[in-house]
């Protein structure tokens, strides 16, 4: 017992310690004027006015992100309290109140851990954005610029990746220790009770992830779409131009959506995959007897060893980037190295911790015998499958490859219309190989180790989570760094923005890879939870999808991702519309601003003579008057908090209502349909949006050999901007949130399994007979 516990606790502590070490490296670059010394890097590359300007922008982004997250978490806190009461009441109906109390505690623990993970991610990303800009400006040559800025952004991602993995692992282990001490584990059936209650930890993480993904996604894309539509297409001003009132809200959105939302999302995946494996393994008293505590803790040991593998590989990226072409290669190399190392490490773990043969309960068969080698195949298929999905996602979303180049070139054929047609086709096509990879993983894992094999494959895919989070959060940090470089006045040298743009372009691809990774792992996690539900309900005949009740609800489940996506996309559209109106109103504002007013920019204070006046709207466009950034932040905040509730309620209520009124076979249909439909829609949406974004950057960065497709301001560029704007809610709101839809419905069904079973023996309140 000491061995596995030592590995788990040791890895968790090392992860948090390493995250702190990376944070100290990030914090070594000062931004705030009160902290500056003569040797501070900012003094070597910026004058006093630029330093003051950057600090104001940095603080505005920080305050906006803090305000949104605190407002969102207040709503989440109310939800956690109310839903905890629902869990206690409903589970108390199906089981005893002891199980209800333990599940409720696990739910609250998971929810707060998820919120803390999102908060850490957002704070670190905001903390590092201006520091990345400073590194890009301080370099005396291209090599120093790229190395400094890349290291800063990648280290910030590492702080999030390792702290989240370490925190999630340690909290779950401590919860298991408390429960194992409280319950009488000399009775082997208590292991099953303990793991059923622990599944509340995954439910807590997933519900908060839903609010984070949907709320953060609506916030960031309302600001982004609003800023692009007015700024680029109407006013013809650059992205992140300080004259655009929505630009601060846009940069805030990168942190609350792409960082806080992703952090909570992948924490939920880790918690749910682990819970699924624990529930399945604990359902077999033979497995508990044969393998003991070490075998039970095997799922946590996979994650623990993954932390150490990711830590070793992270050193290979430090100081490796010295020019633009090396950025994508280095980030891709991280994925490859962690995969190559994790396969043998996973094999050693399985051979060391699992019995030579062990018995488990499954779905395809009531009980089956497995071996460590079979588990190794399942684990390896998940690890390698995650890499393949990541590389395929890169191929379809990076302008280094032909699919995105084709989308960019289509702007010459028919403008925005053909750009959108090509982008949609790319998204649909990009789902083919990832779905085939998932099918192979599921077939292998299910054939060898039934649902336990699927859960282990999901954990294998998530074993490199620290690295995947590092490269995923790297992207929003670079995006913010570019925005700060653009907004700082007097303007920074053009090569600073060129450096941040190059890093951001790679960041867009890594963000797409991260989304593909999250969606692929979510599909496996959802299936593993589904299997755990069937095992928990002791259904030994499997699930017949042709049973009328199951098939009817399968169609309904397949419809839910579309209903959900319609709600989230419309929410973005409405919020963006309000943002567009606000930005237009500000540039048309005829309020008179006089010399000496606090509304004037630094340029306005320098150039306007005493007694002179200017209309506010004209002054904004001339760079003399500050836009009202706070008003745009308020619009995004209020819209996202209001609009995130209905889609989240849909996901939570669908399985609950189906199970309550129609029984467990209706729930099986909901889960099957939601999984099969959701995974494909999520992949196509995310990759379509990523391709449109990088097609735009392909033109802006003058990477095309065609002179017509080089630079900003042309009709072809505007066509690409339209595609990018349409793709924003696809890749950053609806698409990524669909993976939580799949997972949340499954974990919620697992947690409430006994409640469903208690209602007319699983037939629901309507007591409709089923043919099984």
From TrEMBL:
One of its GO terms (cellular component) is membrane. The chain crosses the membrane at residues 6-31, 75-93, 99-121, 153-176, 296-321, 333-353, 373-392, 420-446, 452-474, 517-539, 545-564, 648-671. One of its GO terms (molecular function) is inorganic diphosphate phosphatase activity. It is found in: Endomembrane system. It holds the Pfam family H_PPase. It is an enzyme of class 7 (translocase). Its main location: membrane. It is a multi-pass membrane protein. InterPro entries: PPase-energised_H-pump. It comes from the Eukaryota. Keywords: Ion transport, Magnesium, Membrane, Translocase, Transmembrane, Transmembrane helix, Transport. Its EC number is 7.1.3.1. NCBIfam families: V_PPase (TIGR01104). HAMAP family: PPase_energized_pump (MF_01129). This is H(+)-exporting diphosphatase. It comes from Florenciella parvula.
